[in-house]
Amino acid sequence: MFPRLNLPGESTGPTVTDMHAGGEPVRILELSAGLLKGDTLARRKIMNEFHDEIRTALMLEPRGHNEMYGAILSPADAGDPDPSPHVLFCHTSGYSTMCGHATLALGRYLYAREHNPDANGRYRLRTPCGAIEVAYDQNSTESVFESVPCHVHALDQVITVPDLGQVRGDVGYGGAFYFILPGKRVGLDISTGPVSEVARLARRLFTAAKQQLTIRSHVEADLQFLYGVILTDSAPQARASRNICLFGVNQIDRSPTGSGVGARLAIDYARGKTAVGVWRTFLGASMLGFEGQISAVSGQQIRTRIRGRTHFTGQTRMILEHDDPVRHGFRLD
Q1: Closest by alpha carbon to 22, among 202, 254, 187?
Q2: Phi, psi (rounded to 5 degrees) for 209
Q3: Which CATH superfamily is domain 9-144+312-319 in?
Q4: CB 267 within 8 A of CB 170
Q5: Phi, psi (5° rounding) for residue 66?
Q6: CATH topology for the 150-309 domain
Q7: Are 318 and 305 in contact (CB under 8 A)?
């Protein structure tokens, strides 16, 4: 028998819900009203500057791990005519601008929590990159979301990587910016090669790309940075395509990366490799998949629709004891 825990009230913490989408974890926390205020980008700044210990306690050891990912929900301000909640996406090294796999998980989470959807059964979420809508279908057990406008930032960008020389790739935006190229261009078979080998090379590409590529776009200034590198296989459109994404500080996404799928679709559309309305399957490092399609085109921008299954993995009441020196997490670099 385990001893009964009699903890003082100030030592207890919130309850979090753990899920995964495509194998990538999502730890969900709902904040009470008043802690964060303003638009979503303002909340992101407030969280980063004044409450970052919440993120580190959620993401880092001993409660989390190097590959942990999270979604922090906060309610609309009092008197806001838009009652939609805000969501901040976070990971072990900071905050994302968008996250597709977490959005899919939130669709099922909000459904399970009996939040009120709109007349079309959709939940509106305010994210750092804009408002998105997600729905959960209990019959198919899938979530589906409509992306923010996605676009090609630049095609055929060349970076110089030590011991590799010049490497060419494309930069696409799906709520975040990614440098995207086929693995075979740097001598890797993404379909069969070990993920650890892909990760080592992706780190080198990411370091070079961040140093050498300049992101200047019509999106908010706070969003104008390279978020990750995606290495793809060379599968034709008719077959499932695997990609492996490295983001943050050396995190490998287990899922196909929902915002990365949007960026890939924008690039493929610009190159004439896909068409509006065609569903395609994308596999992640875990070999689990999402499906994506272009739902609309407006000038140089596209809208995408992405769907996939998500699963609950646990629910935890966090405990933060005052005499615990690592109660807010720690990281071994």
Answers
A1: 254
A2: -65, -40
A3: Diaminopimelate Epimerase; Chain A, domain 1 (3.10.310.10)
A4: yes
A5: -65, -25
A6: Diaminopimelate Epimerase; Chain A, domain 1 (3.10.310)
A7: no
**Any idea which residue has 């961040």 for tokens?**
210
Is residue 135 within 8 Å of 120, Cβ to Cβ? Answer: yes
Q: Which residues are catalytic?
A: 99
Q: What is the distance between the alpha carbons of residues 229 and 248, in angstroms, rounded to a whole number? A: 10
The residue ranges of DSSP E strands in 47-149, in sequence order, are 69-74, 86-91, 94-96, 122-127, 130-137, 142-146
What string of H, E and C letters represents the secondary structure of 54-71? HHHHHHCECCCCCCCEEE
Q: What is the end-to-end Cα distance of the chain in Å, rounded? A: 37
How many whole angstroms from its chain centre is CA 207?
20
What single-letter amino acid sits at 128?
Answer: P
The pTM score is 0.95
Q: Are 101 and 255 in contact (CB under 8 A)?
A: yes
Cβ-contact 152, 172 below 8 angstroms: yes
Q: What is the pLDDT of residues 269-309, one digit of tens each?
A: 999 999 999 999 999 999 999 999 999 999 999 999 999 99
Six token digits for residue 281: 């399957």
| Total Cβ atoms within 10 A of residue 86 | 27
Matching residue, tokens 């100030």 = 10
- What is the spatial distance between Cα 27 and Cα 24, in angstroms, rounded to a whole number? 10
